[in-house]
Amino acid sequence: MNVLADFYAAHSKLIDQVGIDALLALSLSISLQAGQLALAQAAFMGVAAYISAVLALNAHWTLLPAMLVATLCSTIVAGLLALPVRRLRGIFLAIATIAFGEIVRIVANNLAISGGAEGLSGIPPDATTPWIYGTLVIVSTGLWFFSRTKFALAIALVREDESAARGVGVDVGLVRFTTLAIGGAIAGLAGALYAHSNFFITPADFGFGRMEQILVWCVIGGITSPLGAAIGAALLTILPEAIRALADYRDFVNGIILLVVVLFAPRGLAGIRLGKRR
Amino acid sequence: MTAALELDRVTIRYGGVRALADASLEVLPGRVLGLIGPNGAGKTTLINATTGIVPLTSGRVTLGGRRISGLAPHLVARAGIARTYQNIRLFGALDVFANLSAGAFARPGRLDAAHANNLLERAGIAHVDLDARAGALPYGDQRRLEIARALAAEPAIVMLDEPAAGMNPTETAHLVETIRAIAASGIGVLLIEHDMSLVRAACDRVVVLNFGEVIATGTPAEVVADPAVIEAYLGTESV
Amino acid sequence: MVGQQLVNGLFLGAVYALFAIGYTLVFGVLDILNLAHAAIFMLAAFATWSLLGAGLPFWLAAPIAIAGAGVLGIVLDRIAFAPLRRRAAPNLIPLISSIGMAIIFGAIARGIYGPDERQFALAFLQTPPLHAGPLTFTIVQLVILGSAIAFMLGLAWVMRATALGRAIRAVAEDRVAAALLGIDLERTIGATFFIASALGGLAGILTALQYNSVQIDMGGQIELKGLAVIVLGGMGSITGAVIGGFVIGMVETLAVAFGLSEWRDAISYGVMFLILIVRPTGLFGKRSLRTA
After folding, report:
1. How many Å separate Cα C116 from the centre of its chain?
2. Between C106, C228, C276, which is nearest A92 by CB?
3. Distance CA C57, CA C51 (A)
4. In degrees rounded to 5, what are phi and psi of residue C137?
5. Are B105 and A170 within 8 A, CB to CB?
6. Considering the entire predicted model, what is its pTM?
């Protein structure tokens, strides 16, 4: 037991980070499973992080209610985004969601309530490891049950061939909307937890760089496998830390791994195929 | 459920092109209606119009008396119309069982293995493994899997878009049996085909399209002898 | 004063246009978004700095860096995109592959140069601004505008008057037909990457000159702004990239002039978002929306 306790004490920050990263990867993987390259997870995360932080700092809310309200907000934002982009596919959807993400970041950068470019600090660190992993377990379990429903089949059909999916009665628009909303919710949870486990948040935390990182985890883990995405996140968060000598080359290693996976194992570690037909 | 599919003076115009003009036809439950015509005559447009992919300029499409023209494609499917595609559109990366489950998507409840195997049997591919990847199946089996997927929806109407493409005469003869069996189970079948031997053997009635217009209706024998039809095909061996 | 702002907008727009042409060339030919473009933008600026430090004069260092950027573009294609072409992968995979290369390029740059900002020790950067009537501009700005126009004209000439240009346009139009006509696809694609990356590198050098700053993350903003430009101009259209670049440059400069500087970027991204919703093909893009 002491060994575990010591390990935890030495690496608790990292362990927390992995948990949050896994949630983020899960949130993106849902959209990717539907074949939607909707790259706004970082923005959803940011919305929830800020709302949760503001509630905690200004209104002294405790973690759970703040997290729930923040997640509700990020889900609504995701749902709102789904409407204007409903006709977009592929690269166009990706770019539109990237633009959206940037706008959110700039808004956070300019408003007084979000602390401007300096962000917010002094957020009570209520999101301890049990909170993070508890959330991860609940979300994962929920997704596991979800994967057994007909809706999950519909998601796969939309990914594989939208037109044929319509031909068997799948409401493609509803599937896309729902996956985006679910992604917004999970990213929201991650965002709130992030805010309450780092003492401060700034708009830069939720920009395109973060979004690229989440995408990389999903690709490496296997785009259409939530488990794979989570593993990808864990792997790429831990690896540079675990191998001290690699710490300086963290990004280089990330890039190489990404390239190797894309070129030689495009199905990712979980072995599922990327890409779909219209 | 059984219901008749009726196209009533359907016209489709887009961008100055008149793809379908005043086309009317009826697919009755338990009967097979063939749809033939030279390439570009509007056959696929007609199917796309029926399934809601292409909007009608005028006219209407009804199923069992209920109007389905103007409905979104997934609602048309749920109303009881299933189809196969000229270029196979299976969910290739998924397994056979998943493809059949997809076909049954709009039906309440879930498909079970027994029912799935039954569908494969009706489509003439009882030997295919439920776990096989759909995209890895031989071409002929893929075509039949599409048929099985369409049957999984328990539709009122099945539309087959050139199901015999790429098949040899033996396979085509086998396909005739499959199609007649589908009709015998109460489903109305619309068959688009170029292979006249298949059309003659499988269809009760035939509609001939040319330049978007219906130029002849009747039994296969009547239609083949129709001078307007012969002129439309002018020299094509298949007639 | 509006006139001055418009002039400033020209310089910003010129750089945006150059960078965006790089995006649009690759997209036009391969239907791929090359997210390593901004990394080459940055590397060219650093290469110039290094060459200057080694004693080369600017008029030698810059062209060498630009050519080097072009070569790097070919290398990028060979490593990250060509293998995927052989495999006929869906278009989202090359996008991710380009992200991998961008990360690697960035890591290499960080490894060599570290995170600190560098500056060009160039005499002409210190010269006082010139005046033409009520308008003010610096030598740097003239260099920017001058070289941008020169390269764009050069590109136009290549695209219209050379066999290579015809080949590129053919491949962009229909890759299969182009191959059937005997066009060497791989060579044409390689040449496209050379041109696109050279222009991106030029944009990087000009940006570094404008702000007299070379830094690892200098490509961060233009990477996304470039997307706004090609969305506005139409993805795959060079004319669109040029016009779009100048329009976005003007819009941003005017936004700052009207006191909206903090929202300047949001306006560009907002325009981008709106266009994607309303008219995804932009001003001059391909008629139908391709599924990427």
Report:
1. 24
2. C276
3. 8
4. -155, 160
5. yes
6. 0.89
